[in-house]
Amino acid sequence: MTQSNRLNQGGRIDRSRRLSFTFNGQQYTGFAGDTLASALLANGVDIVNRSFKYSRPRGITAAGPEEPNAIVQLGASEAAQVPNVRATQQALYDGLVARGTNGWPNVQRDVMSWVGKLGGSFMPPGFYYKTFMAPASMWMTYEKFIRKGAGLGRAPTEADPDIYDHFNQHCDVLVIGAGPAGLAAALSAARAGARVILCDEQEEMGGSLLDSRESIDGAPASAWAEQVVAELGGLANVTLLPRTTANGYHDHNFVTLHERRTEHLADTAAGAGREGEVRARLHRVRAGRVVLASGSHERPLVYANNDVPGNLVAGAVSVYIRRYGVVPGQRLVLSTNNDHAYRAALDWQEAGREVVAVVDSRAKPDGDLVKQARDAGIRVITGSAVMEATGSQRVSGAKVVAIDTERFVVTGKVETLECDTIASSGGYSPVVHLASHTGKRPQWRDDLLGFVPGEVKGMHVAGGAHGVYALGETLTDGADVGAEAARAAGFEEAAAIAVPEVAVRQESPTSALYQIPHEKPPLRAPKQFVDLQNDVTAAAVELATREGFESIEHVKRYTALGFGTDQGKLGNINGMAIAARCLNRSIPEVGTTVFRPNYTPVSFGAIVGRHCRDLFDPERYTALHQWHVENGAEFEDVGQWKRPWYFPRRVNGKRETMHEAVARECLAVRRGVGILDASTLGKIDIQGPDAREFLGRVYTNKWAKLAPGRVRYGLMCKDDGMLMDDGTTSCLAENHFLMTTTTGGAAGVLEWLELWHQTEWPELQVYFNSVTDHWATMTVTGPDARKLMSEVTDIDLDREQFKFMDWKEGKVAGVPARVFRISFTGELAFEINVQANYAMHVWKALFAHGEKYDLTPYGTETMHVLRAEKGLIIAGQDTDGSVTPEDLGMHWAVGYDKPFSWIGQRALTRPDTAREDRKQLVGLKPKDPKVVLEEGAQIVLDPEQKIPMTMMGHVTSSYYSPVLESGFALAVLKGGRNRMGETVYLPMSDGSVHQAEVVSTVFIDPKGERQNV
Amino acid sequence: MSEARSEASVGNAATFDTHPGADAGVTPESPLQWSRVQGRVTEEGGAAEQIRVIERPFLGHLVLRGGAITLDEAVRAELGVSLPGKPLGLVLDAEGSRSVQWVSPDEWLVIVPAGEEFELENRLRARLGDAHFAIVNVGGGQTLLELSGEKARELLMKSVTYDVHEHGLPVGKAVGTVFAKTSVVLRRPSEERFELVVRRSFADYCVRWLRDAGREYGLRVESASP
Predict the structure, then answer these.
(1) Who's near A632: CB < 8 A, 6+ residues apart?
(2) Global pTM?
(3) Minimal C-alpha gap between B92 and chain A (Å)
(4) Which of A410, A643, B60, B115 is the most buried (most CB within 10 A)?
């Protein structure tokens, strides 16, 4: 197919580099420098999509991120699929494959179109709410069909082959937008020495300068842009980011930029010959000052059938002609309310195509461009507007009529002009989206007929973004604002650059015009679209106001105006103006909705960056990790730690199940000796003359008399009296303690200590430091533990010399160690602490000596069973923030008579914490020994009671005990301590009911003799 | 050695020489041991990479807590350098092998060559006497990674949230910062290099992250012998 709309010369494309691409299954060619949109227009492709709700044919309307129709699904392979790409923003590359996202099965013949034609009047705003409200159960079914019909792209079903990453950027001045204002601002700031980041969403920096008719210093405007970009590129303090959209403006000048690094070359980095390179990068910029030079979007006018392919915004016509050498039609009618749009007609005529007429709503336009058009012989119809487009697949004519904008009526006879293209311009809307992300509402300016950004701390606005449109003024403004931003960032000497010469143009004022009145009343006239992407019409906005939706936020939600990826770029102001007219209010009274990040869609890959697959979350390893892996451990995640869960062996050629392995490990500890890597326990070094006093205040029990060399178990409560963490603390010296915490609680406990020290008791002389990673901890436990230890240590292990709850210092396997006689298994146990770098040596030595005792490594599962058999709790498993030490039966660990108050004391003296019927920790023994109760199972007293049953508590820990040869559990039960020996019931979801006897929490060795040997 | 230990334990705080001594025949393993086994640390060779990461394992790491004036005198006397005069400051001795880093208003990190830390702790304790202070040996819990090469800054921009530009992190500055999904201490001891102090349990994650982030520039991770 030939490029029928391509000019032989002009534009910033490279005609020597021909690129072939496929759109909706058809092959086309374009040139390097094209966007997908310009290439489609060059090839005369009118229909690129079907509309969202009415399934009407749609063509390309704009040339930038504001494009509402040309939303495509990109990608040649399944894995490379990208939904919702704007054809106007996608650089053309060889082999590009795209299709319109809407239209089922295709855009040319769309089975949904009957819905649009027949159903149009049946689909008023709020249609979905009204129609599919009931029955609620059917919504899932409706939704599938609505989605399929509505389209809006689909995610790939295969894994993305590309990689994405994040960059943390810092700068003095971030300039958003590299049009005339942005370039001038960046240059002012950069020359002052500020660190500048200049980002621009387009392939090429320069913005409106690239399609301007004007001259700068006597040369084409684009030449000045090239020269400034070159200068900036040569400065070490400037970072240029083309193809980079500022998508989110967050608090404190934190701005997220989405840079597309290979998407302009191919659909994957590998396809572009850049295997392994980053496809898109999210820059997280913390900027001293932000210069918002985002320019403006031209507003289309709202007239009947303004969505038929061939209707474009006027500026886009100029962009396609001047930047891409493409004239998107043969015969043009331009409908405008301002001077600037006349350039579309002039460009069109100079391209050798016919301008049928310029229809100007103003009575007496006489600016320079108007004169130029008249001089060029173009017919100018004043006081009028295009009321309606004719044609269905493509514009075939424009119905033009004189209008009275004050009374909103047509006043003359309708004249139909034959044409295939209608360009419209209703003025310009500053791009306020980013400024509005911070929550600051845009402000209406009557003189500009547009909203300008609200005041954001640390932000400066330049150029079109606050309504400075004339080129010369824009350059001056940008230069001044750039210098101002640099000064504000601390570069006090910053001065505006000398601005080049630009001829001043006389313009006649723009008139306020949004919706064009029609012969028929608005609700009867053919559809006048306000928001093309969401298929919102002027009638819908009017209907919404009639139905009582007066707040613009309600109108938005009721009609979908400005929803989704569009974010109201073309339609919002028109929609508000229509709502204002219907409500008989002014636009500022109606106000605007708030725009949200992201400005344009960001790929999930860029949001995720490298935080995926094996880098998704940190994995913390102990010093013994390698041994665990090499010895076949299965791992359990405990927080971010990888802890051995159990160590399955091969028995008779078969790998043990978890149940078998855990049973073997449990018995080894109860009958021989086992070893656990307990390095993950939190460890906090506490030093200072008031360390002891501090411990007394944060633990429930007493610490005043704990002697050096002794260890004590402690309970820590929150100020509500509920258990927060537990662990042992050892007295290393008079003013020196080592506290242990649960694995998961380590960081939280340290913060808790610091919080109370810094805010409540700063007078106490004490310091806390984490030593969790410094020490590796190995627990050797079981009846044979002493025998094994005696072979590797110089410490006197005599039971009278080294008692339960003592700690000693010595060498283990030649390595200096602190050994603690504490037990979480109920067996004789030695907990060995060595500096982590020596841990592997010690561990291996223990195994070398332990072979004859069948030293058995065990993991967290066995640890859980062993401790539960002894009724030892795990904070966070047997407690849930509503359990007091008393509830756990640990009143022995609460020092009510301590001289100074301690955290939780007040709460524990409330009547509520003294209630007899609180949930208390008990043991449960299933009547059927084969049953292992489900953790979380609810306990009831009467299994026959009708639902809702009276729930008395729940199971907190439950395992099978190979020693008891039975299941057993810990549970919290209302008034549990007074229910010993009672039978309780546990109804299961499958209808079965388990029975269990309430017993003591200690299942093995109730007197605690085994750990004291 | 065991005599020195028990003697030092007599005071109000217990000190502890964690090292078995050279003649004990004990081989230490650095926090990057598992990374090495996984092939993430190359001992030698390699083409001209743009970034080098070198682990300096087994150094002595001490945390000092206390008032600046009290500690400064003792540190100057025993280490020959003053405490950093400013928050986020990092000072090195003349050799560049001993450093003191500001961590918080009452906290400093001292890094000294392997094996020096226990003696230094004892000398500082003796000099500080009854003052309120704390010295904590944390050498087993962290390791030092040195970063150099022309793309080291870009590598850090991908990894840490702090401003690593000359303006944000000049020579002589050290900060705690977010590193991917963990945190590290980031130091700028000289023009040519950055340093990361990483926690033992996160060390492999940090190296994995660095290798991944450095792939586009070419990166080699090595471990220096003590």
Answers:
(1) A647, A648, A649
(2) 0.92
(3) 23
(4) A643
CB contact under 8 A, A284 and B161: yes
**Residue found under tokens 């230490």:** B28
Contacts with A, B 76-95, CB within 8 Å: none
Interface probe with A: pick from B26, B36, B150, B217, most Cβ of A within 10 Å: B26
User: Is B30-58+141-226 a domain of CATH 3.30.1360.120?
Assistant: yes
CA-CA-CA-CA torsion sign (A263, A268, A274, A280): positive
At A601, the pLDDT band (50, 70, 90 cuts) reads confident
Contact B26/A838, CB-based, under 8 Å?
yes
Residues sharing a CB contact under 8 Å with residue A57, sequence separation 6 or more, in sequence order: A46, A47, A49, A50, A51, A107, A308, A309, A392, A393
Q: Which two tokens stand for residue A214?
A: 């004007």
B172 to chain A, closest Cα gap in Å = 20
Two structure tokens written together for A673: 């000796």
**Which phi and psi (to 5°) does residue A381 adopt?**
-100, 120
Strands A829-835 and A856-857: unpaired
Neighbouring-strand partners of residue A422? A311, A333
Q: How far apart are CA B46 and CA B44, in angstroms?
A: 7
Asked if A993 is an interface residue toward chain B (Cβ–Cβ < 8 A), one would say no
Does the pLDDT at position A114 exceed 60? Answer: no
- Name the residue type at position A672: G
According to the model, what pLDDT value does residue B225 have? 65
Closest CA to A334 of A350, A315, A320, A352: A315
Tokens of A69: 């129709």
Q: Helix count (H) and strand count (E) of chain A?
A: 24, 52
Q: Where are the domains of chain B?
A: 30-58+141-226, 60-138
Contact of B28 with A837, CB cutoff 8 Å: yes
Query: Using CB atoms and an 8 Å cut-off, which of residues 187-216 of chain A contact chain B?
Result: 195
Does the CB of A657 have a partner CB in chain B at under 8 Å? no
Q: How far is A237 from chain B (nearest CA, A)?
A: 10
Q: Domain B60-138 in CATH: superfamily?
A: Heterotetrameric sarcosine oxidase (3.30.70.1520)
The interface pTM score, or ipTM, of the predicted complex is 0.95
> What would the DSSP string read from start to end of A446-461?
TTTTEEEPPP-TTEEE
d(CA A702, CA A486) in angstroms, rounded, equals 61
Cα separation of A274 and B55, whole Å?
31
Residues in B closer than 8 angstroms to A618, CB to CB, are 180-182, 202, 205
Residue B31, chain A, CB below 8 Å: the answer is: yes
Q: Which of residues A339 and A596 earns the better pLDDT score?
A: A339
Query: Contacts of residue B137 in chain A, CB cutoff 8 Å?
Result: 774
Q: Does A774 touch chain B (CB under 8 A)?
A: yes
**Burial grade of A650 (CB within 10 A; 0-12, 13-18, 19 or more):** exposed
Task: Please state, in angstroms and rounded to a whole number, the distance separating the CA atoms of residues A671 and A1004.
Answer: 13
A490 interface with B at CB cutoff 8 Å: no
Chain CA centroid to CA A270, Å: 27
Residue pLDDT, tens place only, A643-696: 999 999 999 999 999 999 999 999 999 999 999 999 999 999 999 999 999 999
Contacts of residue B208 in chain A, CB cutoff 8 Å?
Answer: 614-615
CA distances from A768 to A162, A753, A817 (A): 45, 8, 21
Q: How confident is the model at residue A126 (pLDDT cuts 50, 70, 90)?
A: low
pLDDT, mean over chain A: 93
Answer whether A835 sits within 8 Å of B132, measured CB to CB.
no
Looking at residue A118, its pLDDT comes to 47
Backbone angles phi, psi at A776, to 5 degrees: -100, 145
Residue B17: closest CA among chain A residues belongs to which residue? A816
